[in-house]
Amino acid sequence: MSGTGARENVFATRMALTNTKLRLKGAQTGHSLLAKKRDALTTRFRAILRKVDEAKRKMGRVMQLASFSMAEVTYTTGDIAYLVQEQAKLATFRVKAKQENVSGVVLPAFEVDRVAGSGMFLSRRTFSSQAYTCPDFNLTGLGRGGQQIMKAKEVYAKALETLVELASLQTAFTILDEVIRATNRRVNAIEHVVMPRLDNTIKYILSELDEMDREEFFRLKKVQGKKKRDNAARDANLEEHQPSAIDNAIGPEETGSVDLLSSKDDDVIF
Amino acid sequence: MTTSFKDRNLIAVIGDEDSITGLLLAGIGQINENQKKNFLVVDSKTQVATIEGAFQEFTERKDIAILLINQHIAERIRPTVDKYQQAFPALLEIPSKDHPYDPSKDSILKRVQKLFGE
């Protein structure tokens, strides 16, 4: 039983047993804590999963709308792609990262952050009435189609907001996925490696201690038996000697020496 | 990881001309001091290697928080996109004008479907 599974390399002592029992208890506590963490994360993960799915579909619609408005711009203004690309210098549509804590896991959340761009044509703010215009493109569509461009800009900004939201969901999704996997690995490792090993160690120590107990008992029995045998032998011996002593007592005047001599005398007599 | 996403605040795009124009109109365009753009216009003549290069560059840059890529372009470098697992920058596949959005091709949605299917 003790030699079946992997176990710690310890001496089978009472102290090692206590230590291992304590460690097993610790492992059990850790296991239950990690399992709780995993459950909390999984709950969160499921919620995010559903949201990601929804947001992706919503994004499809929003981007379609944005493409339509772009088509309108192209129809009225002509190709502005080159113009726009050349004028892009500094991003005015940025994101800000916040963080959120879900049972010890830091999840980032992006937020739209619009900053005033340092446009080249600040003097001619054609679209400055808009809340978030980017001064860089204020000359674009000055001839015609200005309104369409304005609209496209707004629609695209809206679409980007959706995209940013989706991006933070997706990042949370990726991170959570990773963390859940790591937690699962830990939970399983404790459950299937650490705890059985400690269990085996405890069993091993117990069996060794039992074995030692039995050995000790057997040894004591043996010693007792030996003592008994010795005693019996001595008693027998004593009884054997007793008559000789009596003999000696009969004729004490013959020899005034010790027993040893008297026994020798017996031998001599025989 | 916890410190690095603080200074990520740009959105990068790899897309066709129309998508790029629209997104630039919204104001995401940025050209840094090394004249590096945060967008790449892809048309039918663009080499796959160019797209891959831009993809690598954008994912390795430290100031980009979100990378948008048109789905039909992502399709052309699908192995690279599928291999991409990092949290930052977040990779988003967006539909383009000529190519409607197909959720079954999205690498993230594929994982979502897989997880739901389990």
UniProtKB/TrEMBL annotation, chain A:
Entries under Pfam families matching the protein: ATP-synt_D
Keywords: Ion transport, Transport
Keyword Transmembrane in record: no
Residue ranges, compositional bias (Basic and acidic residues): 230-242
Segments for region (Disordered): 229-270
GO MF: proton-transporting ATPase activity, rotational mechanism
Record has Ion transport as a keyword: yes
Alphabetized InterPro entries for the sequence: V_ATPase_D (IPR002699)
NCBIfam families: V_ATPase_subD
Family of this protein: Belongs to the V-ATPase D subunit family.
Record's protein name: Vacuolar ATP synthase subunit D
Source organism: Agrocybe chaxingu
Classification lineage: Eukaryota, Fungi, Dikarya, Basidiomycota, Agaricomycotina
UniProtKB/TrEMBL annotation, chain B:
The name this protein goes by in its record: V-type proton ATPase subunit F
GO cellular component, one term: fungal-type vacuole membrane
InterPro entries: ATPase_V1-cplx_f_g_su (IPR008218), ATPase_V1-cplx_fsu_euk (IPR005772), ATPase_V1_fsu_sf (IPR036906)
Subcellular location: Vacuole membrane
Molecular function, one GO term: proton-transporting ATPase activity, rotational mechanism
Pfam family membership, one: ATP-synt_F
Keywords attached to this entry: Hydrogen ion transport, Ion transport, Membrane, Transport, Vacuole
Similarity comment text for this entry: Belongs to the V-ATPase F subunit family.
Topology class, membrane: Peripheral membrane protein
SUPFAM superfamilies linked: AtpF-like
Keyword Transport: yes
Principal subcellular localization: membrane
Job of this protein: Subunit of the V1 complex of vacuolar(H+)-ATPase (V-ATPase), a multisubunit enzyme composed of a peripheral complex (V1) that hydrolyzes ATP and a membrane integral complex (V0) that translocates protons. V-ATPase is responsible for acidifying and maintaining the pH of intracellular compartments.
Quaternary context: V-ATPase is a heteromultimeric enzyme made up of two complexes: the ATP-hydrolytic V1 complex and the proton translocation V0 complex.
